[in-house]
Write a structure and sequence with these properties.
Blueprint: H1 11-15, E1 32-36, E2 41-45, E3 53-59, E4 66-68, E5 75-80, E6 82-87, E7 97-103, E8 112-116, E9 125-128, E10 139-149, E11 152-171, E12 193-200, E13 206-211, E14 217-223, E15 232-234, E16 237-239, E17 242-251, E18 257-264, E19 275-278
């Protein structure tokens, strides 16, 4: 982090010394001095320097979590805003702070966002779903704020990630449809018992035993780009599942479609006490 000292000559800054020992600014004690931090006078040890820096940088609608991948070029968050706070800012910034967007950006994504000379709040920005490169099991957008005060520049950034779900559960149907969220659909596998809200990145595993109570086949579906052969466990016993399809086009609830692998248990179950695990 760079440091700076500024010579104060403006009358309004000098007049702020009137606040010393007023309860707002403590009077300096032995071996301390008054130092201007960019906004006001501070009593501090001789040699202390105050650094301009970005304290916080965030978005009003999303953060560094993982979100469901949607249709490329479609809107993830419309008219969203970024906000920032600073330490030791001497006033308005020398030039408008800006946010640069990088990563798996779609062709229509605006790549900069103006934060203005105060640097505090951006103009609204339409953030689009990223491309579906899937180089690491997730797609990524990175938002980097750059602000400059005097000769000191600081940056702060965060990344937002996008992935697709895996879906598992019990259903009476032997085959599943790739669209919809009802029983008989991949994204309806939680209708009886199961889950469709666990992200699949680079692993097909379901390492924790989960209950599968109800009557029907046990189904397991995940993006076909994930390689390897799963090992399926029902109530602590390994069973060979049938690969129903390795090219089942599945549309998730954000509208994104990609091929899934669909595995199914070799028989229908009726027990309310079965557990399910994939390794």
């Amino acid at each position: 982090m760079a440091t700076w000292k500024k010579v104060i000559t403006e009358q309004d800054n000098l007049s702020s010394m009137d606040a010393v020992d007023s309860g707002t600014v403590n009077a300096p004690g032995q071996n301390t001095t008054l130092i201007f931090d960019g906004t006001s006078w501070q009593a501090a040890a001789a040699g202390t320097t105050y650094n301009f820096e970005i304290l916080t940088f965030a978005n009003d609608s999303f953060n560094s979590s993982t979100y469901l991948q949607g249709v490329v070029n479609a809107g993830f968050e419309a008219a969203t805003n970024f906000t920032a706070t600073y330490a030791n800012k001497s006033g308005d910034l020398d030039q408008a702070a800006d946010v640069a967007i990088s990563g798996d950006t779609s062709a229509s994504q605006a790549l900069t966002c103006d934060m203005g000379v105060d640097g505090n709040t951006s103009q609204s920005l339409n953030v689009l779903y990223p491309t579906d490169g899937w180089t690491s099991g997730t797609n990524q957008l990175t938002f980097k704020l750059t602000a400059e005060d005097g000769s000191v520049e600081d940056t702060k950034q965060f990344s937002t990630y996008f992935a697709n779900y895996k879906a598992w559960g019990i259903d009476a149907a032997e085959t599943l449809d790739g669209t919809g969220t009802d029983s008989g659909d991949v994204f309806g596998l939680d209708t009886i018992d199961g889950a469709v809200d666990q992200f699949a990145t680079t692993s097909y595993a379901l390492p924790t035993q989960s209950s599968v109570a109800g009557t029907g086949y046990i189904h397991y579906c995940y993006p076909a780009r994930i390689s390897g052969t799963p090992v399926f466990w029902i109530s602590n016993t390994i069973l060979s599942f049938d690969l129903v399809s390795s090219t089942l086009d599945v549309t998730n609830t954000a509208g994104y479609t990609e091929p899934f692998k669909h595995w199914r248990s070799p028989q229908s179950y009726t027990s309310a006490d079965n557990t399910f695990q994939v390794t």
